[in-house]
Write a structure and sequence with these properties.
This protein is mainly alpha-helical. The protein is 68% helix and 4% strand. It has 20 helices and 6 strands. It has a 4-stranded mixed beta sheet. A two-stranded antiparallel ribbon has the order 1-2. Helix 4 runs antiparallel to helix 5, helix 7 runs antiparallel to helix 8 and helix 8 packs antiparallel against helix 9. The longest helix is centred in the middle third of the chain and has 57 residues.
């Protein structure tokens, strides 16, 4: 394998060039979640604390801000965005390295392992996550490490690897609470192993002990401040059909370099015909493959299904604002990808299908990288940059109480904390502040609404509703949005 190390170095160089090129125009993408990560990381790097303005952040666990803040401390810089750029690049290279070793452990050849790991890293799912100040990229690397330790344990039966598995599962929880779905999947895998009950219990204890210690350390830390450890509440709120459609589209975007709806429909129809034709033609090969290889396929199917069920329960009972998008579904991406590779190469013995899939994934990822270079994303993107010059004098000189559909942007760009950061959210969801009261706050109480066209989240009041609610004399446009205030409060 040593003779292939130059190939690994070349792959690393290509990844670095593509990644660095993508972030030269607008830098890292910054979303509302990113602002929380950045503020928490800043607090940790300066004060070794996870508090923001005296409030402990628990909606997201502290793993990613901790690593980001620690990196800023170690290289002695205050630029969190530069640190995030470096951190995500390092994680991207680690993901390429880790996924290749998983492929080797699964008996893929050296050439296959390099090509398919390269396609994995440059896929839309991975490259897009790495271009954002998001915790997904760290979570994905920990996920791959945990699965590699599971494969090592399965082949060697050494307890050392299952201890590492439990430790990394705990670290995953400290990055994203979604790790609970992955932990549940491994519990089921251990139970389904062909061991006696005593051995299964022993393995479960060994896995859950280190992960539980890490999880409980965060819970007790938060409870010490009399705060809910996980900022979620139990209630029933079913998802609508659009959320499911968006989830399916997000999964297809991982593998296909298309974004148009009609193209997706055509691709789905063609894929259905091709799959049916292959199944009929190759069914004699598929049946013995399943008899011999089903254990491996079953493993990936179990992990994916258990995680899907976990997300379904989360959306329907705990977090109605979570969408079935590429971010929340990302943990199943490597397992779906492995399933497709395994089926193409090991089952029906048509490796060209695997190479075709890898090529499409690379094209999809490159399209995302070029788009990020040309437009940026969210608060650091082109749509928001044109709003800055218009808002600077407003923010600096305004004595209004500000209500915004992007309060995180005001905090990120201007350091301004709106007094009502979730006012419009309450208007739409909890009905605590009716539209008439919002009108009263602007008309009689001197509040100002700063609305950004680029933000279209379902929990915020829409532009059309605001246009109907406020007369034209209240509305003042600026590039990328509008301000709503009463210029003559005495009237």
């Amino acid at each position: 394998m040593k003779k292939f190390w130059p190939v690994q170095i070349v792959i690393f160089i290509i990844i670095i060039v593509i990644y660095w090129f993508s972030t030269t125009s607008y830098g890292m993408g910054v979303s509302p979640d990113s602002v929380c990560y950045l503020l928490t990381a800043e607090s940790f790097s300066r004060y070794t604390s996870f508090f923001i303005d005296g409030h402990l952040q628990t909606h997201w666990p502290p793993g990613y801000p901790f690593v980001l803040g620690a990196l800023c401390k170690s290289i002695q810089t205050d630029s969190l965005l530069i640190c995030a750029r470096i951190l995500n690049l390092l994680l991207l290279l680690l993901i390429a390295f880790s996924f290749r070793h998983i492929l080797i452990k699964l008996s893929f050849g050296p050439v296959e392992s390099y090509i398919f790991s390269f396609a994995f890293v440059l896929s839309h799912a991975v490259i897009f996550s790495s271009l954002m100040v998001w915790s997904e990229i760290l979570f994905l690397w920990l996920l791959l490490c945990s699965y590699f330790f599971w494969l090592k344990f399965r082949s060697t039966n050494r307890i050392f690897y299952i201890i590492l598995l439990g430790f990394f599962l705990g670290l995953m929880f400290m990055v994203r609470y979604a790790a609970l779905g992955i932990i549940g999947a491994y519990v089921i895998l251990i139970i389904l192993q062909q061991n006696n009950v005593k051995e299964k219990i022993r393995q479960l204890v060994i896995v859950l002990l280190p992960s539980s210690m890490i999880i409980l350390s965060w819970i007790f830390f938060v409870l010490n401040y009399h705060i809910n450890a996980v900022d979620r509440h139990l209630s029933w709120h079913p998802a609508n059909i659009d959320q499911y459609i968006w989830g399916i589209k997000s999964i297809l975007m991982w593998f296909l370099p298309f974004r148009e709806k009609y193209v997706f429909i055509i691709i789905l129809i063609l894929a259905g015909f091709i799959f049916a034709w292959l199944f009929i033609r190759e069914r004699k090969k598929i049946v013995p493959c399943h008899a011999h290889q089903f254990k491996q396929l079953r493993e990936w199917i179990i992990i994916s299904v258990v995680y899907f069920l976990f997300i379904w329960v989360t959306v329907h009972f705990f977090d109605p604002l979570t969408d079935f998008n590429g971010r929340i579904l990302l943990p199943v991406f490597p397992f779906i990808y492995l399933t497709l590779l395994w089926f193409s190469i090991k089952c029906i013995r048509r490796p060209y299908l695997a190479y075709l899939l890898a090529g499409l994934m690379i094209l999809s990822g490159l399209r995302s990288a070029v788009f990020h270079y040309q437009n940026g994303y969210a608060f650091s993107g082109k749509d928001f940059e044109k709003s800055v010059s218009a808002l600077i004098p407003v923010i600096q000189n305004s004595h209004h109480k500000i209500i915004s559909n992007a309060p995180e942007y005001l905090a990120f760009k201007f350091g301004y904390k709106p007094e009502y950061t979730d006012c419009t959210e309450m208007v739409i969801t909890d009905r605590l502040i009716p539209a008439e009261q919002l009108l009263y706050q602007v008309k009689d109480s001197g509040a100002m609404i700063i609305y950004f066209d680029a933000i279209k989240r379902k929990r915020f009041i829409s532009r059309d509703t605001l246009m109907q609610l406020f007369p034209s004399t209240y509305r003042h446009s600026f590039p990328g949005g509008m301000m709503i205030f009463n210029a003559n409060p005495e009237m």
